[in-house]
Amino acid sequence: MDQLRKERELFMKKAFALPVVEKRKQQDDNNDKNNDTSSSAKRKRFESSSASSRDFFPTKSSVPLHNFSILTKIVNSMKDRYLNGDSEALTFDELLDETNQLDLSPRQKQWLLTEALPDNPRININDNGKYSYKPIFNIRDRKSLIRLLEKYDSRGLGAISYEDIKESLPNADRIIKFLSEKNQLIVITRPVDKKKILFINNLSLSFNVDEEFQKAWRSIAVEGMDETKIEEYLKNHGISSMQDMNIRKTIPIQKRKDNKKRKSNFRKLNNHLDGLLEDYSDKQS
């Protein structure tokens, strides 16, 4: 019995001497939590310091959204004045009075004077420091509109957006309607974005087309088809399409240079050894 008791005591001592893994895991978890809390605290301190620096040194990214609404109100007011026939330049205080924004803070006024108004593409500043609306196109009547469309047509620049004309020409809707009824310009609605574009109607390029050809042309629907599908359609109906001919450029053949070994003239190069050199070519054979 005593021997059994001793063996039990030895077994219990060994069991108590073994390390407990669960406690280590808990300790590791606690350490990770402590590290996370410390890192989050450091991150908060860094964000707070960076935020304070941004407030102290204001940048374009830190401009409040309310400031842009102030700028939008000024630009829209100047555009409306221009489209109504009033193109007189105004001072900064007159701009604020025109838009009922005299209660702006000094910081907002400074932002308008130094960044917003000078950098805006629709605002023009003259030599006296007065502000006026700068349209996309410098057109005032239907004659200038016709000249602009003719310029785009002659230079192959394509169409002009209807919205750009409306923001540049006073009474644009009435003038465009009048010119389209006179068959002097063409208004097309793009199927992609449903926006209107303007073309000049070049009457010198007009010609009569047979009605049968027009019907045959309109009977073929090519919407949603690319060039490869159109080419396959033509091939299936026995019609050959024009293709680009890859012209190969002839590369001139370069003549090989004869790599002739230069014979070394020992007598010319070694004049100072005359009488000392001997020829052993006969002895080698």
UniProtKB/TrEMBL annotation:
The keyword Nucleus applies. Transmembrane segments: none annotated. InterPro entries: TFA2_Winged_2, TFIIE-bsu, TFIIE_bsu_DNA-bd, WH-like_DNA-bd_sf, WH_DNA-bd_sf. Pfam families: TFA2_Winged_2, TFIIE_beta. Residues 21-47 are annotated as: Disordered. The keyword Transmembrane does not apply. GO terms for molecular function: DNA binding; TFIIH-class transcription factor complex binding. One of its GO terms (cellular component) is transcription factor TFIIE complex. Its main location: nucleus. Keywords: DNA-binding, Nucleus, Transcription, Transcription regulation. Residues 55-140 form the TFIIE beta domain. Residues 21-35 have a biased composition (Basic and acidic residues). It is found in: Nucleus. GO terms for biological process: transcription initiation at RNA polymerase II promoter. Belongs to the TFIIE beta subunit family. Tetramer of two alpha and two beta chains. Recruits TFIIH to the initiation complex and stimulates the RNA polymerase II C-terminal domain kinase and DNA-dependent ATPase activities of TFIIH. Both TFIIH and TFIIE are required for promoter clearance by RNA polymerase. This is Transcription initiation factor IIE subunit beta. The gene is LOC113796928.
